[in-house]
Every structure is written in structure tokens, then in C-alpha cells.
Amino acid sequence: MTTTKLNAVENPKAMVILAHGAGADMDHGFMEKMTALLNSRQINVLRFNFPYMDKRRVDGKRYPPDRMPKLLDCYREVIRQQSQALPVFLAGKSMGSRVGATLAGEALAQPGQVKGVICLGYPFHPQKKPEKLRLEPLQQTLLPTLIVQGERDALGSKDDIAGYRLSDLCQLVFLPDGDHDLKPRVKSGFSQEQHMQSAADEILRFIDEKS
């Protein structure tokens, strides 16, 4: 049984299931901040840990991410346990978004309730390995997909992505000078706080559009 955490609000308009990235768990600062921003926009957020991250919590050792089949099984189980009668959106930071996007290419446990996918810093390729592309989930998705990406993300920059073929169901939003954590450099004139707010606004727009 994976660890989950629900942050709910009164009169929610949707439920976002938010999966963490490869190196940080559901309580990482980015995850906490995005949860608070979505709650302030009347969106419930359900976070969870993948099995390897729960294992880290038990013995304090660092483990690599589980292989994709195990990650998919975990995310599927979280979806199945979600019982609120709200539109559901599968979301994730980096690796978590790749898992959610992969699920969007198959028949889900609650196909009518799951309305879309939200990717925060999608890992289009490993860092410094632009030839190892991970485009299939975004080419085979059966659900509307929002990708919020920093322009200079080392795992898929705006220039990189311009050459990729993605499904017509994908919407791309680039945040000026943002990195993989949506953080811009000081000289850009933007802040990470601004970009997190912008990301939350884009998610709200997407949810209103697809619910």
C-alpha cells in the first residue's frame, strides 16, 4: 500500500493526482508549493509516493526509481482508490508526468472520470542524452495533455521540442528561461514563484477547459 496525502478544499472543481519526480518524494518543496497553489484555485490534490520512495523512508537508503511497469501499477492503484465524484487529472513532476502520460495511452480504471494529463517538466530525454527520446507517451496519448516546460529545461528545451512530433492532443506552454524545476535565472527578470503561479494558472485553465 503506497503512502498518499490528500489536500482537499471546499467546493472543489476537480481532483489532481500529483506524482513526484525521480529524486524527491511527495513532500518535496516543489510538490508542496504546487499543491498549495492548486488548492487556492479550488482544486483538490492527491499526492503519493512510488514504492521505491516509501522504501527510502523506511531505511533511509537511496534507491533508484522502480522500473516503469511497477511505477504504472502504483499509479493505476492510486487512480482506482480515488472515489470522489470529481473530474480527475493525472499530473506529475518530471518522471511522475511520464508515468501519467503513459497511462493516458491505455484504457483506465475510470475512463469517464479521467479528463486529462498535466506534465510539469516532462523528461523528453535524459540530461545530456538528447538522442534517447521518450516521446511515445506524448504520441500515443488518448487524453488531452498539458505540458508546462521551462524554455531551457535540460531534459527538453524549447529548441529541442520544436523538432519533435507530438499528438495533436498535447498543449505546450513554455515558461521564459525556466529550467527543469521551472526556475529562471535572475537576469531573466522572472522568479520561480512567478513561474509556479503561471503554471498553476495554466493548469486551472486546462481543467476548466476539459472538465
UniProtKB/TrEMBL annotation:
<protein>
    <submittedName>
        <fullName>Alpha/beta hydrolase</fullName>
    </submittedName>
</protein>
<keyword id="KW-0378">Hydrolase</keyword>
<dbReference type="InterPro" id="IPR029058">
    <property type="entry name" value="AB_hydrolase_fold"/>
</dbReference>
<dbReference type="InterPro" id="IPR046879">
    <property type="entry name" value="KANL3/Tex30_Abhydrolase"/>
</dbReference>
<dbReference type="Pfam" id="PF20408">
    <property type="entry name" value="Abhydrolase_11"/>
</dbReference>
<feature type="domain" description="KANL3/Tex30 alpha/beta hydrolase-like">
    <location>
        <begin position="13"/>
        <end position="207"/>
    </location>
</feature>
<dbReference type="GO" id="GO:0016787">
    <property type="term" value="F:hydrolase activity"/>
</dbReference>
<dbReference type="InterPro" id="IPR026555">
    <property type="entry name" value="NSL3/Tex30"/>
</dbReference>
